[in-house]
Specification:
Blueprint: E1 18-21, E2 27-33, E3 64-69, H1 70-76, H2 88-94, E4 100-103, E5 107-109, H3 121-138, H4 147-159, H5 168-177, E6 191-195, E7 210-214, H6 215-221, H7 226-233, H8 239-255, H9 265-271, H10 278-286
Antiparallel strand pairs: 1-2, 1-5, 2-3, 3-4, 6-7
Length: 290
């Protein structure tokens, strides 16, 4: 099993995920704690009340998720995305950051829902690629998160006005930022190249389909679909992996003349709730042309 998997199935929100607070105008937070308690059980620090006591609308049986402001965490804890996920809460506490305790239903993963208007394979690939470029332009300015910007990019992609970049972009970024780290679990490790799309599933045997991976992740992923595997283990997916995967699928569907075929629900649901790794969000800011 890959290291650092910290996720309770009922939460649907892993440690380190960037989330949106649906009750506070899309403020952004980072998940730092997953206490094994519900809203009626979890005591709010420095009070004699539970989380449920603060709002009658909270379901008493909903699991509690602890979060901190993403902006504050970025400013106060250097390179937190390279550190152990299990240490996030203590690092935030040491930095004097306020830790909020919310019901999990109040939070949702940023950029992770697949809208109903995304119907075909072309639509789905373009939407996910638009997510990547939208993250690049808003990650350091959450107040500028605007749905219309994402849809503008999506419309430009689906109409052919703009196209996805060459896979050389992912390769350049991979060489500059990912050397010495597993692309899947983000841990410093000895790595070998893993095929994103398994060879047994028709994956090509060249750099467009390869990323550095540690022995543990390589073995765990094996011949599984990369999106399913990330969803199963609950940790965010690397920007390089998403970029390469989308370009591989585009080429596959284009070759088989399936780009404008309706996307099955099983494929749509594969992407629901998938979070792009925060570490990659930061790197994208340095490479706005990606």
């Amino acid at each position: 099993m890959p290291p650092e998997i910290q996720r309770e199935p009922e939460h649907r929100l892993p440690l380190g995920m960037t989330v949106i607070d649906s009750d506070a105008g899309y403020d952004r937070y980072v998940v730092v704690g997953l206490p094994d308690k519900t809203c009626s059980e979890f005591p709010v620090p420095d009070t004699d009340k539970t989380v449920a006591d603060f709002n009658d609308a909270y379901d008493e049986d909903t699991p509690v998720v602890q979060v901190v402001s993403k902006e504050a965490l970025d400013e106060s804890v250097d390179n937190w995305t390279r550190n152990s996920l299990a240490d996030l809460q203590s690092e935030a506490d040491d930095a004097g950051l306020k830790i909020y305790s919310y019901p999990s239903e109040r939070l949702q993963s940023a950029f992770s829902h697949v809208p109903n208007r995304v119907e075909t394979h072309r639509d789905l690939i373009c939407y996910q690629y638009a997510r990547l470029t939208h993250l690049a332009s808003t990650i350091d300015h959450p107040d500028q998160f605007k749905g219309w910007l994402l849809w503008t990019k999506y419309n430009e992609l689906t109409s052919g006005e703009i196209t996805m970049s060459s896979v050389l972009k992912e390769n350049q970024y991979q060489l500059k930022e990912n050397l010495g780290y597993c692309t899947y679990c983000n841990r410093e490790s000895e790595t070998t190249f893993d095929h994103i799309v398994p060879r047994d599933s028709g994956g090509v045997n060249d750099i467009s389909n390869m990323v550095p991976a540690c022995k543990s992740c390589n073995s765990s992923k094996n011949n599984k679909n990369i999106i399913d595997w990330h969803q199963q283990h609950g940790f965010p997916i690397d920007r390089v992996v998403v970029g390469k995967y989308l370009k591989l699928k585009w080429n596959e569907f284009e070759e088989d003349d399936l780009l404008d075929e309706e996307t099955p629900n099983s494929v749509r649901s594969r992407w629901e709730g998938l979070e792009i790794a925060r570490r990659i969000d930061q790197a994208l800011t340095m490479h706005p042309d990606r």
